[in-house]
Amino acid sequence: MKISSVNVQNRYRQKNYRGIDNGININELFVKYLIEHNIDVAGTQELVPNCISEIKTKLDDYEIVGDTRYNWLSSKIMKKYNETNSIISKEKIVSTKTFHLPWFPSTFPRIVTAC
């Protein structure tokens, strides 16, 4: 089994960020990495909902789980910061939970996803 961890690097300051950074589609690079290296399970950091939607369309054999930082808050102001620490897996996921951790001294709440 191959396990990987990837910081996708959220560019939340870009309006409606969808994974394009300096003309490079980060989502396509990430999907290519998973497939070429035959990754079974990948933990992510800073994966935003727009990118998850695109990645899901390209990874039929994988499940993507994990809630966002502000899952409990439906504020449009915080939407652009609403990252996940998703887990992407070829294996069947039986259960999953995202925990909110103490967030001081950080400005943003800390989260961890377990499955």
Topology:
Elements: E1 3-7, E2 20-21, E3 24-25, H1 26-36, E4 41-45, H2 49-58, E5 63-65, E6 87-89, E7 97-101, E8 110-114
Parallel strand pairs: 1-4
Antiparallel strand pairs: 2-3, 4-6, 5-6, 7-8
Helix pairs in contact: 1-2
Can you tell me about this structure?
Helix content is 18%, strand content 26%. The strands form three sheets. A four-stranded mixed β-sheet has the order 1-4-6-5, with no helix packed on it. It has a two-stranded antiparallel ribbon with strand order 2-3. It contains two helices and eight strands. The chain is globular. Helix 1 packs across helix 2. The chain has 115 residues and is an alpha+beta fold.
Nearest-integer average pLDDT: 83
How large, in whole angstroms, is the Cα Rg?
14 Å
H and E string: EEEHEHEEEE
Largest sheet: 4 strands, mixed
How much strand? Answer: 25-35%
Roughly how many Å apart are the termini?
16 Å
What structural class do the secondary elements suggest? alpha+beta
Overall spatial form: globular
Q: Write out the strand line-up for the largest beta sheet, numbering strands in chain order.
A: 1-4-6-5
- Low-confidence parts: none
| Beta-strand segment tally | 8
Helix content: 10-25%
Number of helices: 2
